[in-house]
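Narrative of accomplishments. A recurring question from our advisory board has been how the design workflow behaves on a single, concrete structure rather than in aggregate. To address it, we present the structure tokens for one chain from the evaluation set, followed by the sequence designed for it. No filtering or post-editing was applied between the two.
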């Protein structure tokens, strides 16, 4: 009897163990299935999230639109241009130079800051341009103490009064002196330069590299493919200028960094340098003076180049590999970062384009043409004539007046021809094709070299 009872207890214990194990297995299986289901949902959510985020960013923040675009085109930098309706012809001309040299990959980087509402009415919304007024608000540049209002839809310096203002001031000796003040047009340009530096700084803060590209800095080759991507050691690469004279002439560095065409790499050293420079001098009056002064104050060391009128000609004729390199140490907490700055050879970024010849030969190693003309009331027309002779003015109308008038009357961005492109790259390609093929306003590609 006792043996039978023990046997029964053992059988009950084994049954309990078997039921317990079966139950635990079932529970684990349920947990596993639930986990897999959640994982799939999470994976599905993350697959959709970037597109949701992208659409939301485009609607709510133009800064984030630029950051998102910069991440999409990386490691290429964004190409940043600013334009108003007055400069619509140069805008399309530089866009075509980018498209002809770099194709879709290059045109995908083009980011246009629109300075006035008139240009917005002409351009297709699918180009995803960004507004100066909106970006100024997002960058915190709408100080009530300034004369510029971010609510204004236009900041076209060409339409601002250029008359010099004067005021009377009393000197230390009690005498009244007439002092010239900057005019309204200069104030407008100062607003643009300050804005451009702050925008570059914000993009660098998010690791986005930038090429600041004036509308008259035309690509002859894709600078990223032909040069910049093979120079990872450089944080800043710029064309050369003579201004400010303190640095651009032989008494200084021999050349100055030109802000008309300059590449800021999205590196920690570049970000820290611009950050420190802006902290020490936030009142940007002229961005070219500002950046050269900042390099000087932070201790950049350049080899000296002889300059002056004769020295400039010699420098123009130097070998194409004559890259002008300088270094400085940038403090970043307990660490020092090395900023490497390069001024591109004059043959790679042509500044002196003066020539009466009709058949211009452009060297094969040229990257960019940024022709310099003496500033005057007709300097813009002079430059267009010069580019036409050099075959880098791609619009059929030599001086742009007919082109712009035709756009205002015939170019309708609500036309089905421009509707519903896949992205802003496709929109630019459609637009440039339309100018060339539909409106017959652009010359066919020709070889610029040889």
């Amino acid at each position: 009897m006792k043996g039978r009872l023990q046997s029964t207890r053992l059988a009950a214990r084994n049954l309990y163990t078997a039921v317990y194990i079966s139950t635990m297995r079932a529970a684990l299986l349920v947990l596993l299935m639930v986990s897999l289901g959640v994982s799939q949902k999470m994976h599905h959510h993350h697959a959709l999230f970037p597109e949701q985020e992208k659409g939301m960013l485009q609607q709510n923040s133009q800064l984030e639109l630029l950051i998102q675009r910069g991440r999409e085109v990386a490691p290429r930098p964004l190409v940043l241009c600013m334009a108003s309706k007055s400069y619509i012809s140069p805008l399309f001309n530089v866009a075509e130079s980018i498209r002809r040299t770099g194709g879709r990959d290059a045109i995908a980087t083009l980011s246009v800051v629109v300075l006035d509402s008139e240009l917005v009415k002409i351009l297709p919304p699918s180009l995803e341009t960004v507004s100066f007024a909106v970006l100024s608000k997002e960058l915190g540049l709408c100080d009530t103490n300034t004369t510029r209002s971010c609510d204004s839809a236009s900041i076209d310096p060409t339409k601002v009064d250029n008359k010099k203002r004067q005021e009377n001031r009393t000197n230390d000796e009690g005498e009244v002196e007439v002092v010239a003040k900057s005019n309204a047009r200069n104030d407008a340009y100062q607003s643009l330069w300050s804005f451009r530096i702050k925008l570059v700084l914000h993009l660098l803060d998010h690791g986005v590299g930038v090429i600041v590209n004036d509308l008259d800095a035309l690509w002859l080759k894709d600078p990223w493919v032909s040069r910049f991507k093979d120079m990872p050691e450089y944080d800043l690469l710029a064309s050369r200028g003579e201004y400010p004279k303190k640095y651009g002439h032989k008494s200084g560095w021999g050349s100055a960094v030109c802000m008309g065409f300059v590449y800021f790499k999205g590196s920690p050293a570049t970000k820290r340098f611009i950050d420190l420079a802006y902290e020490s001098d936030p009142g940007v009056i002229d961005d070219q003076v500002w950046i050269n002064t900042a390099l000087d104050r932070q201790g950049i060391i350049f080899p000296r180049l002889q300059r002056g009128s004769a020295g400039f000609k010699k420098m123009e004729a130097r070998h194409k590999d004559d890259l002008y390199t300088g270094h400085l140490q940038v403090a970043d907490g307990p660490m020092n970062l090395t900023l490497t700055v390069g001024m591109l050879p004059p043959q790679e970024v042509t500044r002196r384009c003066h020539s009466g010849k009709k058949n211009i030969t452009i060297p094969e190693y040229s990257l960019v043409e940024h022709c310099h003309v003496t500033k005057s009331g007709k300097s813009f027309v002079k430059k267009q004539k010069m580019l036409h002779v050099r075959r880098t003015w791609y619009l059929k109308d030599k001086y742009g007046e007919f082109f712009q008038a035709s756009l205002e009357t015939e170019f309708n961005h609500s036309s089905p021809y421009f509707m519903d492109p896949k992205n802003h790259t496709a929109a630019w390609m459609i637009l440039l094709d339309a100018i060339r093929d539909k409106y017959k306003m652009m010359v066919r590609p020709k070889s610029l070299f040889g």
